[in-house]
Amino acid sequence: MALLQKHRILILGVSGFLGNAIYKELCPYYSTFGTYRTPLLAFENNKQFYQYDFEEDDIFEILDAVKPTLIISALRGDFSAQLTAHKHLFEYISLKKKCKMVFLSSANVFDAYSKYPSYENDTTLSNSIYGHFKIRLEQLFLKLPSKKIAILRLPMVFGAQSPRVNELKLHLEIDAPIELFPNLIMNVISDQKVTQQLHYIINRNKYGIFHVGSKDLVHHDDFIKDLVSKISAKNPKFKLVYTTNDERYLAVLPKENKLPKHLQMYSLELLDNMF
After folding, report:
1. Which domains does the chain have, with CATH numbers?
2. Whose CA is closest to 238, among 164, 176, 185, 183?
3. pLDDT at position 274, please?
4. What distance in Å separates the CA atoms of residue 83 and residue 87, rounded to the nearest whole number?
């Protein structure tokens, strides 16, 4: 195996659920820096973290201080301000010979399609504002030289402390109905598996588009019911939501860029290993 350059990694959005999980995975192996938005003592005391509000602050100051060789964007928030921040990242990476980008995208770049799962080279098409936004950023970064960009398209991400699981816990606590979408066929992924896949992609200098969902497809209602039963023994209230008369796919599967078997997973593994 070729000797690899030890990256200096900057994670934008290290205070978020996924950004924080990525930091914990990469920190022991690389010089890893992060940006956070909301002041918090734990972040302020970490000398490798920088406070950064992308609606107000200039990212170039942080880039000049860190001098990253790899940038991971896990930002959330205002789309217009994010677009400006990502354009600045694009400019920086374009100018720096030894700097790459990992962009966390979404299955929603395909949410206008409903008849089939989506593969890496399928044409993106979205009916949602979020999906449109992710497509726009994908198109921006795909203008970089091919070896400088990796795009990870994520389905729904779950973890013990993920926003989706916390929301389910809250609904159970206050006895509020949990929405189920019986016509939605999807795949899923755990935060732990995403971070391992990302680590592998960085370590092996991989580039291109990666679909990192579970190998199997599940109905939203079945999966959420199984997940809720793992969280609590309570009898939950469910509300069935039908957005279409027909079954609708929102799933990302790999065809070209398959990761090794130990980095793939089934939805049942996610449920079994989450708590």
Report:
1. 8-158+188-213 (3.40.50.720)
2. 176
3. 81
4. 6
